[in-house]
Amino acid sequence: MSEFLNSRAGTQFLYTCLAAIVLWGLAMVFMREIVDYLGTANGKGVAIALVMANVAGGVSIVYSLLRILDMKDEMLRRRDAERRADYIATHDHLTKLPNRYAFDRCELAPNMRLDDASEPAADAPLATVYAIDLDGFKKVNDLMGHQGGDVLLKEVARRICALAEQDCVFRFGGDEFIAIGRHFSEAKEKRFAELLIQSITRPVRIGSLTAEVGASIGYARLPEHGATLAEVSHVADIALYEAKGRGPNNHVLFEPEMQAKVSRRAKLEGELRRAIDKGSIGAFYQPLVDLRSGDVCGFEALARWKNEDGEFVPPNVFIPLAEEAGLITPLFQQLLRQACEAARSWPEGMGLSFNLSPVQMEDRMLPTRVIGILDEVGFPPERLELEITENALVSDPDLAAHIMDSLSGRGVQIALDDFGTGYSNFSQLARFRFDKIKIDKSFVAACGTDERQEKVIQAMLGLSRSLHAKTTVEGIEDHRQLAHFVSQGCDLGQGYLLGRPMPAEDVLTYLSDRRQVLATG
User: Fold this and answer.
1) CA distance 124 to 185
2) Beta bridge partners of 181
3) Residues of the chain with pLDDT under 70
4) Where does the sequence pass through the membrane (predicted)?
5) N or C: at which end does the chain have fewer Cβ atoms within 10 angstroms?
6) CA-to-CA distance for 186 and 184, rounded, in angstroms?
7) Rg (Cα) of the chain, in Å, rounded?
8) What is the reported pLDDT for 60?
9) Backbone angles phi and psi of 275, in degrees to 5
10) What does the mean pLDDT of the chain come to?
11) Distance of CA 41 to the CA centre of its chain
């Protein structure tokens, strides 16, 4: 009722009622004078008219009061609807935590609870903002479905709220959370981040299964790292990115150098986009040598990029950047087309080996893209070998099997790259058919010096033979390593001793020079 009376409509209603009451009272007080003025002949009719007017006025007032009650109920319903709409707009429907929109409207309340009763240190920040991201959440979703993922998210939200005030915990979407601590000392900031990681990483029971995730945390201080919560949240995200780069279950305090690093990355991403648009990223080719005959049987295409400053950017820098920025597919298509066109000039039967990104193994259209490029260039599928890392098979094994079968069905060779360094297991080798297995160079460096490593290498070679797959040894850099793997019966070798990566125009010269050396030898 008070909301209605304080509104403009309520004020107008009060004035109207007051005017009606005044007029009614004046009519009752001066009724005789009014009758005398209008004349005795019509006095009776005038009196009746006045009485009827008074009755009508009273009925109107009663009706208005009833309408006020109806309007009050309507206003209450509208207020509740507005509150529900505001709650929906500012809260996550799954965890019931405030969302990003609520965070943008958040102000540090003076009575925000501290975690202890002690007075904050004089140099303690007003607030510390923690950006929290779950590590390995996608695997839980893939293995247990979205319902299992939802259970995990609600449990993580509950655990974070158990450590911080609920009004200071936000879910920004997906597996990203924000927590705010107030007046934390430096030691307490670090301790709070450690407690968050310890709590989040505890196993979660989901039905009859148990799920585990990691947590990466970046945090920043108000006002040291920003004048507003939004600014501090932004730099906490930058620290989070740094923490994830250091591996799971890490926490990192923001430092200004991180901002510069992100700026450099953004600059590099812009240059990478322009380079792909211009087609200025090329391929170098490293020889693959038959260890039995010594003949070159093919080349592996390796991406090389010289940026706008004229500097070569390492592939282990720009390939992950292309994956994160969604540029890996156009880069792959561009390089594969370029490599196939170059390989057409090689001696007939000489193969081309090309690496696939794990991200591409999530693309159902990959076989169509590959075969389309081969048909367009006119390069035989039988001469193309695609290298797939073990980690690329983990995310969606069924899709990976479909992609590999589609490519193999068209004659493309499939190689398992960097064997022994990823999520290798026998079930993968039993499920997926590989034409070749590549032994990672990390095993080559220890050959002949580490007995345990030697036994692992022998086991891998024996396994590949039993699966009727050829073996390629990477990273051969000296004659001792070469002699060792020749004696072990390896099929192919690759490394600086056998040939360094070279531009396309040098391949034929390399082959010619090599034939001359062998002929004179």
Assistant:
1) 5
2) 128
3) 1-17, 19-20, 23-24, 26-72, 107-124, 166, 420-430, 448, 450, 516-521
4) 12-31, 46-69
5) C
6) 6
7) 38
8) 65
9) -65, -40
10) 84
11) 93
